[in-house]
């Protein structure tokens, strides 16, 4: 396993424990050169193959020694730190280090001077090359080698004698001194004392126990001319003189006297001591992150993050141009069509047509026309021969299409790349105003409607069917109480003529809104004028005759459906037989001020299934969970719903339990309705308001949800309340507002929907009497025989 660790700098005589990722985050190197000696010892005691590489030497030289040791002549510093032009030597590659921790020992030695041919003949190599004997002279460097000649050569200092080293074959890590008298000498039989590569001071051990230097003055300037190093005894031309001890200069706090020559090793030691005290000190005390002067390791050191970077142009930020970017803009065209847009950052956009039409407007028509139109959407038109051609056109812009029909709105929507806005608006106009409605497509729609009706009756989750039943009970035979799904008996009666009659009355420009999210308003208005202004629909432009403008009339009542729910499981695991009850009371429309208190009340009731409550924020602390699901283990479901329309609303609770406990389940629901008007804790109310605002903001992060919210609000009020306005209204709700709307709601007749085994279901009069009582209890029944 080969490791290449190009350290930015070396720390003398230090022993630190670093993670492998921290090795690349050390500060910038000081202005000096040296040999980086380090040891890697993995905590799992694995050894690594060691190498010794001289990046500016004549060649790589193998080194004998322990397997976990490496030594490099390191030169990764910029050329300005060398007082010489860059030599063009390759930088070491960036290492890939595993995420383990290593024990790293670092030391710095002065770089050896370049070897000349004469010097190579006098001194032996540190280690003989393969095929040579110990003590043999080293091979001379090749002529013309650019790596062996520095740009500004200096005369190399005369070599000192090292008889003990020559005899020993140069096995030591550093240069050995002549053996002292009375001590073991430098032959094969003895080993010279180990000395530091910086100051020739004896170390305490073979690889450990380095002396820790004390504070030192700032490093001497490396730009000054370097004095010749002192010579030892035995070298020609100089008398015997003791070698200066750089430790003395390092341990002294006073600078060197003027005129005194500081040897090269003294300079190196002083620079290293400054590095350790100034640059490496914070890293040892506070960690590597504190020692870094800047995070990126780029070319802008010592620049505060609050100041602009030098040489970088000033940033230009987008301005709102005097208008809030999140404000919804609305434009009304000449034919009455409203164009609304909401700016949102992103590559894709959602554009669609919302039409004030739905099942509530089918009082004078066959029920199920809106259901048929939903299934016929995005079929063949005047420009597109089939639905496949429409889908292929959208795929060119990465788009998808969908149509949804509710009780009061039909919505055609497309999500695609914003660059294809022109194609999307053209497609929407063609689908809504010029559908072919061929006999073949109508027959396929009849089959799809029949299949969906069968699926509703076989589905284990009866929520869509119960919602249909509770609306039929609350608004009997009027507006939102009309059937949303097409009855089976009407599937064969709806044809092209019936559809064109309905479309001519309700698919008019004054009942439409073109909404878009993620596009510019001016561009959307231009496309609307191009494709939706002055367009002749396929059913003609005759004046509308029969438009239902009736207002919803709440009646109350009960709808019961006896059904065997014992075998509704779609898989091998059986589902227990349950009876489903839904009780509702009239609330208010979304145009009234009491709409916000009703929304907070619905969030406070919360609830869910026995396995769907989740954790905090998902219904765990709501009333139906704490008071119903937690206390009555036999109840499988207890959920609150709030349906709100333009002129009315409905707050209801859905519960499921075993058929034998239907009466007790109904009493629990009526009791919860009565407790709504009771005391409301401040913590409970604040939690409900916070959860409602959180759900509102979370849902409005989705582009399709924003589109639907913009379209529905503009369709009903010609404007839109922004999210922060809604949050402000939610924050103003008080407990007195909740009590007021609940008291008003309890005076209305209840609406009841029951599905399943209804043997023990209380009568409608008993349920109404329980909702009128103080405790919500059903009247007691006294039976002689059970």
From TrEMBL:
Cellular-component GO terms for this entry: mitochondrial inner membrane; mitochondrial matrix
UniProt entry tagged with the keyword Membrane: yes
Composition-biased stretches (Basic and acidic residues): 65-76, 174-184
Entry keyword GTP-binding: no
Domain Peptidase M16 C-terminal: 494-692
Gene Ontology terms: biological process: protein processing involved in protein targeting to mitochondrion
Domain Peptidase M16 N-terminal: 338-487
Function of the protein: Substrate recognition and binding subunit of the essential mitochondrial processing protease (MPP), which cleaves the mitochondrial sequence off newly imported precursors proteins.
Protein name: Mitochondrial-processing peptidase subunit alpha
């Amino acid at each position: 396993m080969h490791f290449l660790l190009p350290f930015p700098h070396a720390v003398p005589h230090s022993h630190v424990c670093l993670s492998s990722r921290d090795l690349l985050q050390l500060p910038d190197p000081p202005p000096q050169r040296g040999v980086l000696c380090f040891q890697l010892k993995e905590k799992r005691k694995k050894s690594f193959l060691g190498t010794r590489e001289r990046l500016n030497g004549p060649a790589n030289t193998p080194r004998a020694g322990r397997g976990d040791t490496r030594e490099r002549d390191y030169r990764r510093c910029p050329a300005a730190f060398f007082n010489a032009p860059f030599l063009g030597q390759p930088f070491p590659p960036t290492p890939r280090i595993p995420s383990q921790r290593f024990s790293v020992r670092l030391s710095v030695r002065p770089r050896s001077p370049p070897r000349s041919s004469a010097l190579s003949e006098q001194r032996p190599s540190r280690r003989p090359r393969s095929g040579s004997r110990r003590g043999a002279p080293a091979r001379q460097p090749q002529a013309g080698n650019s790596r062996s000649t520095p740009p500004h050569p200096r005369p190399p200092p005369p070599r000192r004698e090292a008889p003990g080293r020559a005899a020993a074959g140069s096995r030591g890590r550093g240069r050995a001194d002549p053996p002292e008298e009375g001590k073991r000498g430098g032959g094969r039989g003895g080993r010279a004392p180990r000395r530091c590569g910086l100051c020739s001071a004896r170390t305490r051990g073979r690889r450990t126990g380095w002396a820790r230097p004390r504070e030192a003055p700032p490093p001497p300037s490396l730009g000054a001319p370097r004095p010749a190093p002192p010579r030892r005894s035995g070298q020609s031309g100089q008398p015997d003189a003791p070698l200066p001890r750089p430790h003395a200069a390092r341990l002294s706090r006073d600078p060197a006297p003027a005129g005194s020559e500081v040897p090269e090793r003294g300079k190196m030691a002083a620079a290293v001591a400054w590095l350790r005290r100034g640059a490496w000190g914070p890293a040892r005390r506070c960690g590597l992150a504190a020692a870094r002067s800047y995070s990126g390791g780029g070319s802008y050191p010592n620049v505060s993050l609050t100041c602009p970077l030098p040489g970088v142009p000033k940033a230009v930020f987008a301005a709102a141009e005097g208008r809030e970017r999140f404000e919804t803009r609305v434009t009304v065209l000449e034919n009455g069509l409203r164009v609304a847009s909401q700016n949102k950052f992103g590559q894709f956009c959602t554009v669609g047509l919302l039409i004030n039409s739905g099942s509530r407007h089918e009082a004078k028509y066959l029920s199920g026309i809106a259901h048929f139109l939903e299934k016929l959407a995005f079929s063949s038109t005047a420009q597109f021969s089939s639905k496949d051609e429409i889908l292929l056109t959208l795929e060119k812009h990465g788009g998808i299409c969908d149509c949804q029909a509710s009780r009061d709105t039909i919505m055609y929507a497309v999500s695609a790349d914003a660059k294809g806005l022109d194609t999307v608006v053209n497609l929407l106009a063609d689908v809504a105003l010029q559908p072919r409605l061929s006999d073949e497509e109508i027959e396929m729609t009849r089959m799809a409607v029949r299949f969906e009706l069968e699926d509703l009756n076989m589905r284990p989750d009866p929520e869509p069917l119960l919602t249909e039943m509770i609306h039929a009970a609350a608004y009997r035979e009027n507006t939102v109480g009309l059937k949303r799904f097409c009855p089976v008996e009407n599937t064969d009666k709806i044809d092209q003529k019936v559809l064109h009659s309905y479309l001519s009355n309700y698919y008019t420009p004054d009942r439409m809104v073109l909404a878009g999210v993620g596009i510019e308003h001016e561009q959307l208005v231009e496309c609307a004028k191009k494709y939706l202004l002055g367009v002749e629909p396929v059913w003609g432009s005759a004046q509308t005759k029969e438009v239902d403008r009736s207002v919803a009339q709440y009646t109350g009542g009960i709808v019961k459906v006896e059904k065997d729910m014992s075998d509704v499981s779609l898989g091998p695991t059986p589902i227990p037989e349950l009876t489903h009850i839904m009780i509702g009371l009239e609330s208010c429309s979304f145009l009234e001020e009491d709409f916000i208190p009703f929304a907070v009340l619905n969030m406070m009731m919360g609830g869910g299934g026995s396995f769907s409550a989740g954790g905090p924020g998902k219904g765990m602390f709501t009333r139906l969970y704490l008071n119903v699901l937690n206390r009555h283990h036999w109840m499988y479901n207890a959920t609150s719903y709030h349906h709100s329309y333009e002129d009315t609303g409905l707050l209801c609770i859905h519960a499921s339990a075993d058929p034998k406990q239907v009466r007790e389940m109904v009493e629990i629901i009526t009791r919860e309705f009565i407790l709504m008007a009771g005391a409301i804790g401040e913590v409970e109310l604040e939690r409900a308001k916070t959860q409602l605002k959180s759900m509102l903001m979370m849902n409005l992060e989705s582009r399709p949800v924003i589109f639907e919210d913009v379209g529905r609000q503009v369709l009903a009020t010609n404007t839109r309340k922004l999210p922060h306005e809604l949050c402000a209204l939610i924050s103003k709700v008080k407990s007195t507002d909740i009590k007021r709307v609940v008291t008003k709601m309890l005076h209305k007749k209840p609406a009841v929907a029951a599905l399943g085994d209804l043997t023990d279901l209380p009568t409608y009069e008993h349920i109404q009497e329980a909702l009128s009582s103080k405790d919500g209890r059903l009247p007691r029944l006294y039976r002689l025989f059970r």
